[in-house]
Amino acid sequence: MNRTVRFLMMLALVLFSALAGAYLGAQYAISRLSPVLVSEPALAASETGSEKLPNQIVVSSSEISTIITEVVEMVEPAVVTVVGSIPGQRTFFGTTGDQQVSGSGFIISADGYIVTNNHVIDGVDFVSVILSDGTEMPAVVVSTDIFADLAVLKIDGDVPAIVVMGDSDRLKPGETVIAIGSPLGDFRNSVTTGVISATGRMINTGQGFEMENLLQTDAAINSGNSGGPLVNLAGEVVGVNTLVVRGNNSGAAAEGLGFAIPSNTALLISNQIIEKGYFARPYLGVQVQHIDPAVAERYDLPVEWGAFVVKVGGNTPAEQAGILPGDIIVRISEALLDEDTIFINALFNYQPGDLVEIEVIRNGAREVLQARLIELKQ
Question: Catalytic: 333?
């Protein structure tokens, strides 16, 4: 009997040891293979003295979701749906019916001024806006700038909210952004999220000119989103959603290629439209590529900030001043091109008719040229 009991006790001990060893081994393996996710209490402990593990990634998805929700709640009341009516055209078969078009916009002042895209209201004979609460109000087109694809509208009466404009020059690739708009005109104030994919993009419009210094984002932008705000996690508008590219001339298809007009450009143009009733666009006649420290390092350029001249237009102030493709513009009169001032914003410091100094770097040497700006006709 004793012998049987001892045998059973030894068997139980062996089984327990085996199970305990398997459990501890599995836990060790999991700890080695799984990514390290640190909760808020663990993070707090590390801040009070514990050493942070190498390659540790702190994840708080609930915090990110809360920030996005708060930003949307803050900005959404200032976002509007823009609805326009294009009159019917007379054709060989008779007059066609009126066409309704729609897009998005956002309120930038308590006086009722609204920013949207020019292509949203191009050709309309009547335009109205629908507020976030469903109220529809008539609007007037103050003026437009077709080269930046911007338009300023105005409504009368009290506005529900106004947006806060951010500094688009400080955007970095990878920064989270939120697009708000009315895709297809039916789904008012839809929200999509993504990141800034790149800055300083140039897009050929197919209308004889290129849009410069655009923001690229993978936040979904669909028909009807045009003119809506692109917002950062601080709740600031950093761009105006304007277009999406789904393929190229070779037939290659792509997704996630949305583009927005930087907020600094939109604010500069809209402020002048509000003040003067129109935007007098100063024209030099060059196509440029923005230079920042990353671009300078990649291409071994002699400066960290500037504008690389890609093309010089014929019979333009730039050609008459002697600017050449390959020059690097580093200054326009008093405006230095640096981290806070890119080429287009430096140029917009001046008016058509102004005689400005253009400092360039050519073959490693600095040269100062003079150009008289002209007005770019729309």
Answer: no
